[in-house]
Amino acid sequence: MRRLFVAALALLLWLPAFGVTLNGAGATFPYPLYREMFRRYHELYGVRVNYQAIGSGGGIRQLMARTVDFGASDAFVDDETMKRFPAPIVHIPVVAGAVVVTYNLPGKPVLRLTGSLVADIFLGEVKWWDDPRIKGINPSVSLPHMRIVVVHRSDGSGTTFIFSDYLCKVSRKWCKRVGRGKSLRWPVGLGAKGNPGVAGLVRRIPGAVGYVELTYAVSNGMPCALLKNRSGRFVEASVKSVTEASEVELPDDMRVSLTDTASAGGYPISGFTWILVYRDLADGKLSEEKAEALVRLLWWMIHDGQRMAPSLHYAPLSEAARRKAEAIVRSIQYRGRRLFR
User: Fold this and answer.
1) What would the pLDDT profile of 4-44 be if each residue is shown by its tens digit?
2) In the chain, what are the domains?
3) How far is CA 126 from the centre of its chain?
4) Across the chain, which distance is largest between two alpha carbons, in Å?
5) SS3 for 333?
6) Are strands 70-73 and 21-26 parallel, antiparallel or unpaired?
7) Which of 89, 119, 305, 307 could be disulfide-bonded to 174 (CB atoms 3.0-4.6 Å)?
8) pLDDT at position 19, please?
9) Cα(64)–Cα(61) distance, rounded to whole angstroms?
């Protein structure tokens, strides 16, 4: 009986406290999944999560300013930016996803594109949809003589980081002229805020092309290009191809790029999305109650919450990635005390 009492007491101590509200902000890339995860978690445990999808750059800035309990980003924080935080932060990977090239053409054809061709389109050097380079790898598609209208993100974006990281790896010209980052000096095009903004603008403008997370294209009935990967295959973005792209050697801090995968069936513009928190949550100005609730939420997201990912076109964490994520969550503290017990 005493053992049962101790076990029951431990369970009660671990259960989330009803009525707690956690505040987060950041990436739009995982927002469709986070919205469902947080809704379900509230139903199960009574913990409310207010999440503002303002872009990865905004999430990082708000976490740095300690105005949110957690940030979210599709771009890992580089070493220089890490130094600007008032205290150390950690990255918890949640899922992997795909950034797709989507477009507005009559008949919604599925096009094949190469990395160098995508780079030249977004550089403004390939101006027409019936350009010989596009026609050459899409001989069976009737392409209109329609001007290409580039649409890109106007806000600081992890989706932009993943996209530009890929283009830097496949195009020296892109890397020299534009580079990689969450915010870029775009040579051409129209800007829109968030993945929803880019998807919406591409849908409204005939001849437009943009880049969005896969779920936004699928939910809007938009075509996605098949992209040629490093192995020479034209690959469709899917849970399977993103999972293959994520099967790489993983560092303990999980700050890793998945773009331009060497995997034969891997989709080349894949990336993790992370929740960012202070290693010691007291440094983030959280109460002890909030800190404990946040750690429980993170543990649920990398375990039970993973079941929600595939139906929304995200790839769940691999076993290796989950183990790394577990170790990071276990390392989180409150005033020097480990929160995970």
Assistant:
1) 433 343 344 445 556 799 999 999 999 999 999 999 999 99
2) 2-97+270-338 (3.40.190.10), 99-245 (3.40.190.10)
3) 28
4) 79
5) strand
6) parallel
7) 119
8) 78
9) 5
Residue 268 CB contacts under 8 Å (≥ 6 apart), including other chains:
115, 166, 170, 227, 228, 229, 230, 235, 245, 259, 260, 261
Which of 257, 122, 98, 115 lies closest to 178 in space, CA to CA?
122
Q: Tell whether pTM > 0.70.
A: yes
At 327, the pLDDT band (50, 70, 90 cuts) reads very high
- With H, G, I as helix, E, B as strand and everything else as coil, classify residue 293: helix
Question: What are the tens digits of pLDDT across the range 81-113?
Answer: 999 999 999 999 999 999 999 999 999 999 999
Average pLDDT of the chain to the nearest whole number: 94
Question: What is the distance between the alpha carbons of residues 184 and 116, in angstroms, rounded to a whole number?
Answer: 18
Give residue 244's identity as a one-letter amino acid code.
Answer: E
Spatial contact of 73 and 199, defined as CB atoms under 8 Å apart: no
Helix (H, G, I), strand (E, B) or coil at 99: strand
Buried-state track 264-274, b at ≥16 Cβ within 10 A, e below 16: ebbbbbbbbbb
Alpha helices in the chain (DSSP H): 2-14, 31-45, 56-65, 79-82, 115-122, 132-137, 158-170, 172-177, 194-204, 214-219, 239-245, 288-301, 319-331
Contact 272, 161 (CB under 8 A): no
Burial of 259 (0-12, 13-18, 19+ CB in 10 A): buried
Token code pair at residue 272: 């993790």
Strand partners, 277: 90
Count how many Cα atoms sit within 13 Å of the Cα of residue 270 in the half-sphere of its side chain.
Answer: 32
Spatial distance between the Cα atoms of 249 and 254, rounded to a whole number of angstroms: 10
| Res 14: pLDDT | 46
List, in order, residues 6 or more apart from 251 with CB less than 8 Å away.
none
Closest by Cα among 283, 291, 293, 258 to 273: 258
